[in-house]
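User: hey, got a sec? need DNA-binding response regulator folded
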Amino acid sequence: MVVDDHPMWRDAVARDLAAAGLDVVATAGDGPEAVRRARAVTPDVLVLDLNLPGMPGVQVCKELVGANPALRVLVLSASGEHADVLEAVKSGATGYLLKSAGAQELIDAVRRTAAGDPVFTPGLAGLVLGEYRRLATDPVPTASNEPKAPQLTDRETEVLRLVAKGLSYKQIAERLVISHRTVQNHVQNTLGKLQLHNRVELVRYAIEAGLDDA
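Assistant: Yep! Here you go:
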């Protein structure tokens, strides 16, 4: 589903995605319309502009991902401001692409987003990881009666470590000599055990656990 308040841009993006064989189930031009239509058609991937009338894109993202954690949101924005990128990710966006990206780059980004990979315009991924590192230096106090963290298998920990290093599922599969599907299964199992919703949250968890430096 494609959400943008500029009809020509929205139609062009939808047309490029459809021409590449992707199924564009809906489009929307403002925030409230985006929420209504997304709830009705339940897309796998939402290509979302941030600057929307009626409701900001980050609020649209927060509402839809909150109701459906399986939804993947790829922000497609003209803004490369760090605050906008971080706010989008904290609202549940899986990736962030600037509108200066070419059509093929966008198509590839949508496919990777659908597969669960966090996709960022070069330079922005480092920004997001850097923010998570900063957050990880401020430990959250834990109650003495808090249950112990769930136990991950050695292979799940190994996959999690590579996720934290920024590798795609395909790269992880090649590194560990296992199938792409097996990597996805390990990630899904880990998400379930840790009660996390998406890969971005998983990266934050791994960084907080120090696995990206291992």
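Quick note: The first strand starts at residue 2 and ends at 3. Let me know if you need anything else on DNA-binding response regulator.
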